[in-house]
Structure formats: C-alpha cells, structure tokens
Write a structure and sequence with these properties.
Length: about 325
C-alpha cells in the first residue's frame, strides 16, 4: 500500500486546491479524510484470519463500486456541515469522487494489488511501477502539506504549494512508468537471450527508489529471481532459481487458508521446508536484501503450521538486517556495479 502519510498529504493538497479559499484549512481536512477512507479495510484484520485479511485489504474498499457508494455520502455530509455556502452538491461530488478515486488508482501502481472490480471480479490490478514507500514520490506532497498548514488562509503562496505537491508527485509517477517500460523491454530481451522459459513474469522496484528493479520469471515448476538497474550496461541478469515445490502442498491444498494464499500470490509462490515447518513464500514482495545476498529468504514467508506467527506477514523482514552497509550496497547496485 502507498503509506498512510502520503495519502493524507495528497488529500490535503487536493482539498486546498478544491476549496481552500472558501473553507480554509477545513478543506484540507476533508481531502485528507476522503483520501484515507479506502484504507478503512484495515479493521478486517481484527477478526479475520491472516490469509482472508490479506485479500480483504485493498479489496472492496478499493473498488469502483465503493467509490460510487461512498462519494455521495461524503458530499451530502460536507454540503450539510458547511451550510450556508455557495458550493453546489455536484461540485462536492466531483471533489470527493476525484479524491477517493485517486487513492484506489495510485495504490494500483505498487505490487500488493487492488480489487477495482470487486465484488463482481476478484482480479487484482497491479502495475508494479512504484515501491510502496518511495520517498521521492512522497516528499513533494508532504512538504506542500506542511507549508499549507503553516501559511495563513489568504497567503497567495498557498496556490504555489499545492501546485508543487500535486504536480511534482504526478511527474515522478510518470517518470516511474517510463522506467517500467525500459526495464520490461530489457528483461524480455534478456530472458530470451539467456534462454529462460517462462509463462509469467513481473518486474517491480526494489525498496525506496525506482532505479533498481526486482525480477521474477518462471512457471509452475519454479521461478528465476534477479535484479536489474537502469544503469546496468550488460544485457544479462544473474538469476537465482527457486523451485516451486508444489507437491509439498498436496495434503493441504484444499484448505481454505492455502487457497487464499495462492489466490493472493497471483501464482507467484514457492513452498519450502524449514526444519519440520512448511513455509509459503509470496515472491512478489521481494527478498530481504536480495541484491546483496541473492539466496536470502523472501520478505513474505507464511508459516503454514503456525498461523499465530503470521500477523505481520507482509511487512515481516522488509528491513531486517538493514544497516549502513546495506544502504551502501543498495546505492552501489543502483549505480550498475
């Protein structure tokens, strides 16, 4: 998910753009609230088992139908709350619809996936173009939001700040899409050149930036995993192969939790045995410092025999072992070395 602070900042900037002159900083509050409302699905984790909660998050509350339902509710509430005013209900509808849609649209650009078409289709949309927490995207709306909080209502510089916050983050997102096209073109060429057969593949940014990309390609037998920088000169990738080990699931494949995990992974999974414990890996979330240690375990590893140990399964290990040397190795790998 795009982090909550970024959503709040984007919503605040959009609120200022819509009605900052008429409502003052209250417009920022409305924008921040509307931009955050799709993430109300986090409540589901309080009563659902982890595999079900994984699918519930970014499910219905990130669908087009949810946008259609919640937009008029917000519009009617705001229209009533601020009477008397000269903002037509239609304008309120356009504002809240745009802000809420922006949330579910932006979330589709990272690798978790969103259920745009729920409940009619369970297909999850993932463009895999920007990391879930990218400071180069979040900095601009965050800085603009801070400035708008401190600047007085009539200050002419407020317009410049929301322009900067929304404009530069949009330009950066477009830049990420250009990088995505370049990486995908290179990866397809390299897979063909290295004679790696695959029925499915994806590329997604490594943590915190958009220049080093994580690659997974393979089929039902297993997956080749590697990294490529936009600054790499050689048309080759040093892949590590991970067998899928599907047979390890034979005795439990029909269990509901297993079915949910497979569906959530979009088929990009492997199964391992750690001692006497079966572990389900969702490859989409990358490896722990994989560019430095190619054989490292995957961030998303689910203990099938110990479900009580899986409450933070998506975040588990994301920054495990990070230190100064990790940052240096990331920067070095980004540079093409």
């Amino acid at each position: 998910m795009m982090d909550s602070l970024t959503h709040l900042a984007l919503g605040a900037c959009m609120g200022e753009a819509f009605a900052g002159k008429k409502l003052g900083k209250k417009a920022m509050l409305w924008g921040a609230l509307a931009q955050s409302i799709p993430d109300i699905d986090f409540i589901a984790s309080s009563w659902m088992h982890t595999p079900s909660a994984l699918l519930a998050h970014r499910g219905f509350t990130h669908s087009f139908l949810f946008c259609i339902i919640i937009t008029p509710l917000f519009a009617l509430l705001a229209e009533y709350w601020h009477r008397p005013h000269n903002i037509r209900l239609g304008k309120w509808m356009l504002f809240f619809g745009g802000v809420i849609f922006a949330h579910v649209f932006i979330d589709a650009f990272n690798n978790y996936g969103v259920g745009w078409f729920e409940p009619f289709s369970h297909q999850r949309i993932s463009f895999n173009a920007i990391y879930v927490v990218d400071p180069f995207f979040s900095f601009w709306p965050g800085m603009a939001c801070v400035a708008l909080i401190y600047l007085k209502r009539g200050n002419k510089k407020r317009k410049n700040w929301w322009h900067l916050g929304l404009g530069l983050s949009t330009l950066y997102l477009l830049y990420c899409l250009i990088n995505k096209v370049k990486i995908d073109t290179d990866v397809k060429y390299i897979l063909h050149k290295q004679q790696i057969s695959y029925t499915r593949y994806f590329t997604t940014p490594a943590p915190l930036q958009n220049w080093l990309w994580y690659i997974v390609a393979g089929n039902d037998s297993g997956y080749h995993v590697g990294f490529r920088s936009l600054f790499d000169n050689k048309k080759e990738i040093d892949f590590q192969y991970f067998p899928r080990n599907d047979s390890l699931l034979n005795s439990i494949r029909d269990h509901e939790d297993i079915q949910h995990l497979i569906r959530f992974s979009q088929q990009f999974y492997t199964v391992e045995k750690w001692g006497d414990t079966l572990v389900f890996n969702d490859l989409r979330f990358g490896q722990i410092i994989g560019w430095q240690f190619p054989g490292n375990k995957f961030v998303f590893h689910y203990f099938l025999q110990h479900p009580q140990d899986n409450t933070l399964v998506v975040q588990r290990g994301r920054f495990e072992g990070w230190n100064r040397q990790t940052i240096e190795s990331l920067l070095k790998r980004i540079s093409g070395n």
